[in-house]
Amino acid sequence: MNNLQDRPAKGILLRVLSGLLFTGMLVSIKAVSDAVPVGQSVFFRSLFALLPIMVFLVLRHEFPRGLATRRPLGHALRSGLGAAAMFASFATVALLPVAEATLLAQLTPVFMAVGGILLLGERFSLYRAGAIVLALGGMAVLVLPGLSADGADGQLAGYALGALSALLTAGALLTVRRISRTETAASIAFYFILVSSLAGLATLPLGWAALSPSEFGLLVLSGLFGGAAHIAMTLALRYAEASRLAPFEYIALVWPVLADWVLFGIPVSSAFLLALPLMLSGVALAAMEGRRLKWPLRR
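Structure (tokenized):
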């Protein structure tokens, strides 16, 4: 037996931990979003994410040999899409509650299902059709009630940026699917963080904020949380199949709801509660598609 079948409980625990760490990253970014420009946040998040990832690579004996690459253009595309997704994600969390920004990120596997059909020649199925319909229905339920409310323009911009972030992330992950045949996970993670740091640094001429000690500390935490979340997710996918981890997206969304309520005094909205089962059912169907295709091979 391989690790994918041997340790599902370990994979599930790591997936839950990654959701908690990811929430910590977004909470840190939201806490400074009124004072710190998005590009500056991207730079510090990426820079300090290098620390846990480099330690992880050293412990796995993948540094520096694991950084060798035969697909520099593939890395450039993946890293560029990932960096753009990070900019959009941080702009989203500045405009929306953490829970809503996190829910919009769940559109990523649905966009990947569509991208697999359009870009990779994968076949269209009822599973994918159902995933798309449910996700779009959830998106409509989340967005429509806020259109007539005060501050609707900023809210609508947040929803658009959240969907854009999910779309860019899907593009980045589809690129990972292509280049991972020859490239190591270490190189993919390292070059993404390097490009994101440089992209954030490029915004320096636009004006950065003078950081207070607390703001600097929160930006450092965002990087440490983000790097650790990446490691936890990577290990979770090693120990358990993605389809087995999909139901635990529900648990991953508990942390943002609690963070909004306890830290920012933002109660969960009725639109969020109605959109949640629709969008996560779409995610589950997208995951079931992958599991269904693997079943005949196992038999």
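Residues 271 and 277 are 11 Å apart (CA to CA). Residues 3-298 form one domain.
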